[in-house]
Specification:
CATH topology: Rossmann fold
Mean pLDDT: 97
CATH class: Alpha Beta
Oligomer: single chain
Largest sheet: 6 strands, parallel
Strand order of the largest sheet: 2-1-3-4-7-8
Order of helices and strands: EHEHEHEHEEHHEHEHH
Number of domains: 1
Structural class: alpha/beta
Helix content: 25-40%
């Protein structure tokens, strides 16, 4: 039986569990066999955190939670489960109690803020023709176009959902900053990483989609966090 913890990967807005595909392949090569990528509905923080908790509850051993983008808010809310031993934030929101992703965004508006468009049903989209420059400018254009067309839009109201008991105050945490992020301002990322007193912070010269464009570095960072939990 592997001594490595289970890893649960949580995606963010405008994507799904498949955004982790490159990281999953690399972690598998590193010997992680208990890998999970939860598909959250993006309908509310409560719904998304509950879906994540349910997946964590099915795992008997220790868990490392990893969140990208809004997924960081989800693991902040869901990460107090007793078998969660650590949290890794990948260019992610890490709100404090009473804070929401939307409130944090307003502190330093990201470059791509004007490229978001609500629809008549309350969902918030990245304009597909601007997805590449907004979300993943360091990936090939064709890949960005596909991601824009297949994006999974959140209910806009989810931006305003606040955290109650932030798990990063109770669990060891790690943070990866993307210095060329157009979706979450790098200054906001740096502030969140600093205040959580993360065990380690790294900065990658990457877009918001560092999990795809810098997958080797992201997988190595997750591996480093997971390995430290065994000691």
């Amino acid at each position: 039986m592997s001594e490595k913890p289970a890893i649960v990967l949580v995606h963010g807005f405008w994507g799904g569990a498949a955004h982790w595909n490159r990281v999953i392949a690399l972690l598998h090569k590193k010997g992680y066999t208990d890998l999970h990528a939860v598909e959250i509905p993006l309908t509310s923080l409560a719904d998304d955190a509950e879906r994540t908790r349910k997946m964590v509850a099915q795992i008997k051993g220790p868990v490392l939670l990893v969140g990208h983008s809004y997924g960081g808010a989800v693991i902040t809310q869901a990460g107090n489960e007793p078998n969660v031993q650590g949290l890794v934030f990948i260019a992610a929101f890490a709100p404090d109690a009473g804070e929401s992703p939307g409130g944090i965004t307003q502190e330093h508006l990201p470059k791509a803020a004007p490229n978001l468009a609500p629809d008549s049903d309350g969902y918030l989209w990245v304009k597909p023709e601007l997805f590449h420059e907004s979300f993943c400018q360091d990936l090939p254009l064709e890949e960005g176009q596909i991601m824009g067309i297949t994006q999974k839009a959140p209910l806009a109201s989810t931006f305003g959902d606040a955290i109650s008991n932030p798990a990063w105050k109770n669990k060891p945490s790690w943070y990866q900053i993307s210095s060329q992020d157009h979706m979450i301002h790098p200054d906001n990322q740096a502030r969140m990483a600093k205040r959580m007193n993360a065990k380690k912070v790294i900065t990658l010269d990457a877009s918001h989609a560092s999990l795809a464009s810098k997958s080797a570095e992201v997988a190595a960072f997750i591996d480093e966090a997971a390995s430290s939990l065994k000691k």
